[in-house]
TrEMBL record:
The chain crosses the membrane at residues 310-330. It catalyses: ATP + protein L-histidine = ADP + protein N-phospho-L-histidine. It is an enzyme of class 2 (transferase). This is histidine kinase. PANTHER family: HISTIDINE KINASE, HYBRID SIGNAL TRANSDUCTION HISTIDINE KINASE J. Residues 613-727 form the Response regulatory domain. Residues 277-304 form a coiled coil.
Length: 734
């Protein structure tokens, strides 16, 4: 701005005249104290623009009288303004400047306050907790020197919050007890909101849900009553985490939404934009003080040579040249500062958005993990009971209904896994299996499984398989069946009183790889040309004006992504009122020798002349029944206990050949139970039998001493293959 340049030139000129004709009267400490207090009150009321303006004036006067205490206090106030404006790097810079001046004094109160503020910055803004706690410890030392119990309480409050924030509840426990004792004596309302929140976090950690709920409710009530928006926002955030742990997803989302809205109110964009101008002016003042220092040095030279008119003339010329240089420098610096300010604003907005995205991602991950586990557990019951019915009632083995139930349950499990882990699909983390299957059998299984939809809409399903296609193909039949299930079910849902054709035609053979064109064709309602690209987007559903067309909107997106794993792409041809045809080219291997090897590998001899003893640690009654029957029908001895403590007790009395360990159990989870078993020098192999995704728990399972992981529902053959392998390996070592 031209005005700033002119003002600086005028200040420099009058400064020169002032040195020549007399000194300006210095300000008093009383005046500077008054300005400092005024700036502090303005900052606390949220008027950052005026607070920075007054702080700048007070700092200039404090520097003029070389009062290190006042300089430190005003730098601390400037830093606090930038802290409130979410410009954390600037805040840390000015807090450090304040600490430099404070360390030159004997004022422990100022040192305590600045160290505490730096602790806040590193712990809660920069997430460098170890460095932040070092500053907190220094602040506590100064608080003890000045015998200030309130400051000790605030610092202990910050230490507790820092440790709780990173999950180190045991390290923060002593500080929490100290704050609670302080509040009982003093009833300090300035800490009551955060204190209740911290008590709630600690009770949540201790699984004392009733107490935790009470403390969080108190924190929110008092935060509203005392209008402590910042503390109230964090209380809602921690309460949402507690509710999420209790699976109260609706209230968890409501509290998270309140936290977001409160944050938006606290950091209003208008205040940030207004304060940027004063922030730039403050930096210009810092630069001016550098110029003043240069002027003072020049003035000393002028005093020593003032009797020489030639030297005076040369000095004036030098000053003029310097002013021209400074004018150019300030102009360039102003442009740089403006560019930096714009970049910093954009960067801060990006950081805030990224932080919110990370928090949302963490909550989403926790939600997906929880739902995945909760869905797999009942599916294990469905699949297990179906297998038991087929085993115990051989007369039902030919029943198409029971076979369809088993197929549908397994398909539902695969669908649940893919829907809940669609990010995993998009990141190509799924590896296709190589299993042998018959293409026509898969088509008829799909037809039987979806017969209820066909009957509901009075549709006929026709299957046409090219006779050139071999009977046994090798590929991922479960993923292939999922693709077919989605396409055929869509065709049946959007067709009434019509027909659906499932067509397979061999296109070419190259190096034992058969390329087959699959087409799913119907004569239903069809798809508008404008919507044919949209149908492969997640959650998009077109042509749905009636309740008959139910669904999630994920079927076709999953089909598209699964086909990409097969190296294929889907093509749609449709006309409104005449029908739709989905087609894709997919390749499978045909190799008689390899097919025989695959079949031989999955046929494991489950009989054994020796009766192995199996300990099952499982809390779910249905899962206990299924696992026990599965083991006993294969001539193994089985003992079931419902928690980790009972497992430890029975292992003291009996020896087992293998342990099947559930992970998510009350009282003590499977990881802790396994750790305690290994601490007792029990080398019995442990297999984690869990509904959690294997990738989520592998690292922790290894650390706990678990030998292998099987995800429920499991293949019986695969289970006993792993059991036999681990038992024989252990016995051979012994």
């Amino acid at each position: 701005m031209p005005q700033i340049r002119i003002v600086l030139l005028i200040i420099l000129w009058f400064s020169f005249l002032g040195n020549a004709f007399g000194q300006t009267q210095l300000p008093t400490k009383k005046v500077i104290d008054k300005l400092t207090n005024q700036a502090t009150k303005l900052r606390e009321s949220g008027n950052f623009e005026k607070s920075l303006l007054i702080s700048r004036l007070a700092l200039r006067k404090a520097l003029a009288i070389h009062d290190n205490v006042l300089i430190a206090e005003n730098y601390n106030n400037v830093a606090a303004n930038y802290n409130d404006l979410v410009e954390f790097d600037k805040a840390i810079f000015y807090y450090n400047k304040a600490l430099i001046y404070a360390n030159l004094t004997q004022n422990d109160t100022v040192k305590q306050r600045i160290n505490n503020n730096l602790g806040n910055m590193y712990c809660f803004e920069k997430k460098k907790y170890e460095k932040g706690v070092v500053y907190y410890r220094k602040a506590l030392e100064y608080s003890k020197k000045i015998s200030d119990s309130s400051q000790m309480a605030f610092t202990n409050l910050n230490i507790t919050w820092a440790f709780f924030d990173i999950g180190k509840f045991q390290e923060g426990e002593a500080s929490l007890k100290m704050i609670n004792a302080y509040y009982k004596r003093h009833n300090n309302n300035s800490i009551i909101v955060v204190l209740n929140m911290l008590n709630g976090m600690y009770c949540n950690y201790k699984n004392e849900d009733t107490k935790a709920d009470f403390y969080f409710a108190e924190a929110i009530r008092l935060g509203k009553k005392l209008n402590e928006k910042s503390d109230l926002s964090f209380s809602h955030l921690e309460f949402s985490k507690f509710l999420l742990k209790r699976k109260d997803y609706k209230r968890a989302y409501e509290n998270l939404d309140i936290y977001t809205k409160l944050n938006d109110e606290i950091y209003a964009e208008e205040k940030l934009e207004k304060a940027n101008v004063e922030g730039i002016n403050f930096e210009l003042d810092e630069y001016k003080r550098t110029i003043d220092k240069i002027e003072n040095e020049k003035d000393l030279q002028f005093q020593s040579l003032k009797k020489s008119r030639i030297i005076v003339l040369l000095f004036i010329i030098a000053i003029f040249v310097l002013l021209l240089f400074l004018n150019s420098l300030i102009k360039n610096n102003k442009f740089r500062l403006k560019s930096n300010a714009d970049l910093m604003i954009a960067n801060e907005e990006l950081i805030i958005a990224n932080k919110k995205a990370e928090e949302s991602s963490i909550l989403k991950t926790q939600f997906v993990s929880t739902i995945s586990h909760e869905l797999r557990t009942p599916l294990y019951g469905v699949v297990g009971i179906t297998d038991l019915l087929l085993e115990e009632h051989k007369e039902l083995a030919a029943s198409p209904h029971l076979n369809s139930l088993k197929f549908s349950a397994r398909y539902l499990l695969s669908l649940v896994n893919d829907i809940l882990q669609i990010n995993k699909i998009e990141e190509n983390k799924i590896v296709l299996d190589s299993l042998t299957f018959n293409l026509a059998d898969e088509f008829y299984m799909i037809k039987n499984s979806l017969s209820f939809i066909a009957k509901k809409n009075n549709n006929k399903v026709y299957i046409d398989v090219d006779p050139l296609i071999p009977e046994s193909l090798i590929g991922d039949k479960l993923r292939f069946a999922q693709i077919l299930m989605n396409l055929v079910s869509n065709a049946l849902k959007f067709t009434k009183n019509g027909e659906v054709n499932i067509i397979a035609k061999q296109i070419e053979i190259r190096d034992k790889i058969h390329s087959i064109e699959i087409k799913i064709k119907d004569n239903g309602i069809g798809i508008d040309p404008l919507n044919q690209e949209k149908i492969f987007d997640k959650f998009v559903q077109v042509g749905r004006k009636e309740l008959d067309y139910q669904g999630t909107g994920l079927g076709l997106p999953i089909v598209k992504r699964l086909l990409e794993l097969f190296g294929s792409e889907i093509v749609v041809e449709s006309e409104l009122g005449k029908g739709t045809a989905f087609s894709f080219l997919i390749s499978f291997e045909y190799n008689e020798d390899k097919t025989i090897d695959i079949i031989n590998n999955i046929q494991v001899d489950l009989t054994s002349s020796q009766v192995f003893k199996v300990l099952v640690v499982e809390d779910n009654p249905i899962n206990q029944l299924i696992t026990k029957k599965t083991i006993e029908k294969n001539n193994y001895s089985c003992v079931v206990v419902e928690d980790g403590f009972k497992a430890l007790d029975i292992l003291e009395k009996q020896e087992f050949d293998i342990i099947l360990m559930d992970i998510n159990m009350p009282l003590m989870n499977g990881f802790e139970t396994s750790r305690r078993i290994r601490q007792r020098d029990i080398e019995t192999p442990i297999i984690a039998l869990t509904a959690f995704d294997k990738n989520e728990i592998t690292d922790e399972a290894i650390m706990a001493g678990i030998n292998d992981i099987i995800v429920k529902p499991f293949e019986v053959v695969q289970l006993f293959k792993i059991i036999n392998c681990l038992i024989l390996k252990t016995k051979s070592v012994v």
